[in-house]
Specification:
By secondary structure, this protein is mostly helical. The protein has a domain of about 100 residues. The chain is built from 14 helices and eight strands. Helix 8 packs across helix 9.
Length: about 300
């Protein structure tokens, strides 16, 4: 993909594999951020599989709960479910959850969704198929208020509290895929295909954008994380390619041209993506032909 000579329409129509690399202004081929993200997802989940298959005890368990070199790690939402269901949590769970929370506080909250989650990778493939079907007018584009995810977050925690069981884990595609990778085939994988089909034929990234409480929990961390995506108004020509590419496009609302005059009056030329829903995927980086986006660690001057 030649991002320096592309438009928002090119972002939608580009073949999926072509989005794994781009040409520099000098004509050299370079891997995109999507390439590195996909490599990260594959490597991490492959590490789970190899550790179990060869019994090397490096990364044991699944993404729901694991041990890295014997050190406990656990998903923050699972921790909340356990607390809701049992009204207490064990020391190892507290340590594991705080470790994960501390890590994602530093790297950017919802980065889990873009750089670790195996369903996120499948969803990106489904998203491209969805866009093709929309362009051919086979289906219609449907979108909803992304804040509905907070309602699902409460519902799943309430279900754990009422039932005394981790209800969400029965339908959690992240856990299902992670167990499938490590332990092998399960009929539950059919449910994952059902969710993916809904995203392909009904609404783009519906599970990730409107339902998943795992991502919602990481978004709370994202709001306060010092690692942010920074946008430069002076470089931006408002081509809108970033809005087309962004899986959580509402987080880029501030970058629209209608706010430029207000920014100029205040002397603001650069802004951070403050919304915790940003998954740090850098897809806006990949499609921006003016290089208006970059990562910025806001505490670097303090450290």
């Amino acid at each position: 993909m030649d991002r320096y000579n592309s438009s928002s329409k090119d972002v939608v129509n580009a073949p999926l594999l072509s989005t794994l690399y781009y040409k520099t202004k000098e004509g050299k081929i370079r891997p995109t951020w999507r390439f590195w993200r996909w490599l990260s997802v594959i490597t991490i989940n492959l590490a789970f599989f190899l550790s179990f298959y060869f019994d090397i005890q490096f990364l044991e368990g699944t993404l729901t709960g694991s041990r890295l070199l014997g050190f406990h790690l656990i998903d923050p939402f699972v921790t909340l479910e356990i607390l809701a269901a049992e009204h207490h949590i064990h020391t190892n769970i507290i340590i594991g959850a705080l470790t994960i929370i501390g890590f994602y506080f530093i790297v950017g909250g919802k980065a889990f969704c873009g750089w670790v989650c195996p369903y996120g990778l499948l969803s990106e493939i489904g998203e491209r198929i969805h866009q093709i079907l929309v362009n051919k007018r086979i289906i219609k584009e449907r979108s909803f208020n992304p804040r509905v995810r907070y309602l699902f977050w409460v519902i799943f925690l309430a279900a754990a509290a009422i039932d005394g069981y981790l209800v969400f884990e029965m339908i959690n595609p992240v856990g299902i895929i992670s167990r499938f990778i490590v332990y092998g085939w399960s009929l539950a994988i059919v449910w994952v295909l059902v969710i993916l089909s809904i995203e392909i034929f009904f609404s783009r990234r519906a599970w990730c954008k409107y339902v998943c409480p795992i991502g919602t929990t990481y978004s709370f961390i994202g709001w306060i994380s010092p690692m942010k995506v920074q946008w430069d108004m002076e470089k931006c020509d408002h081509c809108m390619a970033c809005f087309v590419a962004c899986p959580e496009d509402h987080v880029l609302e501030f970058a629209k041209a209608k706010y430029d005059e207000e920014r100029k009056k205040k002397g603001i030329t650069k802004e951070f993506v403050k919304d915790g829903d940003c998954i740090m995927c850098a897809r806006c980086f990949d499609v921006c032909h003016t290089d208006a986006y970059n990562f910025e660690f806001r505490m670097k001057n303090i450290i």
